[in-house]
Amino acid sequence: MALREARIDLGAISRNVETVSRAVGGADVMVVVKANGYGHGAVESARAAIEGGAVALGVVEIDEALELRAAGIDAPLLAWLHGTDADFAAAAAAGIEIGVNHIDQLERVAASTGVAVVHLKVDSGLGRNGASESECAAFFAAAAGHERAGRIRVRGFFSHLANAGEEADATQVRRFTAMLAQAVAAGLDPEVVHLAASAGALRVPESRFSLVRVGVAAYGLSPFDDASSADLGLTPAMELSAEIVSVKRVARGSGVSYGHDYVTPDDTTLALVPIGYADGIPRHASGTGPVSINGRIFPLSGRVAMDQFVVDVGDHPVRIGDRAVLFGDPATGVPSATDWADAASTINYEIVTRIGGRVARRYV
After folding, report:
1. Which of 344, 364, 362 has the alpha carbon at shortest distance from 354?
2. How many CB atoms lie within 10 A of CB 191?
3. In angstroms, rounded to a whole number, what is the distance separating the alpha carbons of residues 236 and 221?
4. Which of 72, 7, 27, 2 has its CA nearest to residue 197?
5. Distances (CA, A) of 20 to 10, 30, 139, 203, 215
6. 121 carries an active-site annotation
7. Catalytic residue among 38, 121, 219, 258, which?
8. Measured between alpha carbons, how far is 312 from 96 in angstroms, rounded to an integer?
9. Predicted TM-score (pTM) above 0.85
10. Is pLDDT at 111 greater than 90 in this prediction?
11. 363 in catalytic set
């Protein structure tokens, strides 16, 4: 095993997609593999998602989509966030569907080479990108005109829930439905309509429409504070571990790591784990992040450094070469990514996505 290793269970990703597919009834499933597949590997995760029944894949940038195409993945593929230098012609040539967020962007897409397949995005209440209600009439009219002229094909229509509570979700669903009706009245006929991401797909049935975009749930993580992965029938796909590279016996009162925030309360053993914030381990979890070593879970001791942290293991038997498991599937007795998120006052999405390039990925 590598010094630092993220073991990715591709079968878990496939099974998670199957689980979500059953939960959403007749809606199709798009699996989001942006940000290197939420840290799990975009290409490998994409293949596992398709194996699990995903009918489409989603990414943020066109370059991410082109990497998937270069790897031989030919599934329907949507990219939805673009800078002013986005190469829409290259996307169209590669069969990449383009999320269009405002009328100026629509004009640039329509002027690109080839007939671009687009999904029109509206802002139903998240307050990020997408056409606002006041912009929709002009946006839809322009899209219909370009479609009639053969410059684009409007295949999709989408937005994103804010996950701000039941009332807010219901308001967004109503607003989105009204915007969709306005688009149809303008002469558009999108065949793919999508609003829900993982949270909406699992808990807001009226938000499912014809397709749901599944991100974190595909990787086996819960999007909810009040339900675990196991509660949702999901299996975390990533297990992060590192080899213990130093073990030393120290006296009571020994300071540990920068600032001596931790001082040993008794004579004890310290184990050094060679992974740190350069690898994505949150410094905010200093003193609290949980680590499993030889069947027992300990909090890390003192501050997380750039490349390493220390664990006070007391008299627990530990040797150089043993593995410290930071997180994985809690059903196996190890901490979860959510445990680390709680320790760092963040969300499990961030914990897995930030794992850096020095950490070797091993696929099983």
Report:
1. 344
2. 11
3. 6
4. 27
5. 16, 11, 33, 11, 11
6. no
7. 258
8. 51
9. yes
10. yes
11. no
When the candidates are 3.30.450.20, 3.30.420.10, 3.40.50.970, 3.20.20.10, the CATH number that belongs to 10-220 is 3.20.20.10
pLDDT tens-digit readout, 26-48: 999 999 999 999 999 999 999 99
Which tokens in the block code for residue 339? 């445990």
Q: Is residue 286 within 8 Å of residue 304, measured between CB atoms? A: yes
- pLDDT score for 54: 98
**CATH 2.40.37.10 domain span(s) along the chain:** 238-363
The amino acid sitting at 348 is N
Q: Report the distance separating Cα 303 and Cα 344, nearest Å.
A: 12
Tokens 């680390």, residue located: 340
How far, in Å, CA of 3 to CA of 17, rounded? 31
Structure tokens at 184: 């149809």
In a 10 Å sphere around its CB, with 0-12 CB exposed, 13-18 middle and 19+ buried, how is residue 314 labelled? middle
Closest residue by Cα to residue 314 from 247, 258, 255? 247
Cβ neighbours of 361 (radius 10 Å): 18
pLDDT at residue 113 in the model? 82
Q: What is the pLDDT of residues 50-102, one digit of tens each?
A: 999 999 999 999 999 999 999 999 999 999 999 999 999 999 999 999 999 99
For domain 238-363, give its CATH number from 2.40.37.10, 3.40.50.11540, 3.65.10.20, 3.40.30.10. 2.40.37.10
